[in-house]
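Notes from the 1:1 (GR / supervisor)

We went over the backlog. Supervisor wanted to see one worked example end to end before approving the batch request, so GR pasted a single chain during the call. The sequence is below; no edits were made to it. Supervisor asked that the structure be written out right there so they could see what the output format looks like.
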Amino acid sequence: MDFALSDDQLAVSSELEKLASQFSSTPVDFHGFALVSNELEEQLAENGFFEIAAMPEMGPITAALAVERLARLPYTAEVALSMLLPIALDSALPRPFAVVENGRPGRFVATAKTVFVIDGDKVGVAHPKASQVTAMPDSLFAYPMAKMSDDVDITPLSAAQAEKLKTWLRVANAAEMAGLLQAAVDAIVEHVSVRKQFGRPLGTFQALRHRLSECTVLAGGVRWLALKAAFTGDAGDAALAALHGQESATRVIYDVHQMAGAMGMTLEMDLHLWTYRMKALLSDLGGRGGQSAAVAQYCFKAAS
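Structure output shown during the call:
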């Protein structure tokens, strides 16, 4: 797929780049798992970035591009759901958003004003109180994780609403995964360019170059599939994008941590900020098994 951004889209991308540049490096004294920025989320809201998907001259593809770009930052905020899920909603719901799937802890649940609850085939909407969520500060997923109690009132969605919501959840997953994949690859390219072994940079060894090239191709493939799904809004395209994202992440996570050597197991290197987030996204909507089933359902109807 090849496309050129319109003048309006280019202007939005330029402004987003200026904003993102303020959050492009980690604090010197940070050695943790979840690097969260409320300021990033506030600036996105103040500048109207959460509304770009609904603008006719921008659309979901511009929102997906923004999600992918922001996912490459070491900082994280509730971005992907707020930028892409409103497309699936018939009414305006208060953000930030979060998802709780089959009772598991979810990302940004502690601060969410709207939580989408998935329990098997049933999907509902909840607005939990602060007393109904429990933060999990010791989580290793590099997101702020929290668990929601069972006594929250849930308003069920219709089957059609649930299907549309899952489609855009998959688009959001793929767009965010694409940014995380690219950030992980970029971090390793920088590492092997300066790290030396046998008197030469690691990046000059052909075996590593081949593996990095494969990782780059995988990251690029996820990006293009995510953008296609955002453009079409098709359930099959979304399932394919999410499946390829989750499949690619397992390979890329393994490769980049192996290429980082012992540094990849330390908090001094920022690599975990992207790879551990990918691990959280791997289980969304049933994981690879769930996406494979969705691909079979939406992409091979004629064969069934």
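Supervisor's comment: DSSP finds nine helices and nine strands in the chain.
Batch request approved.
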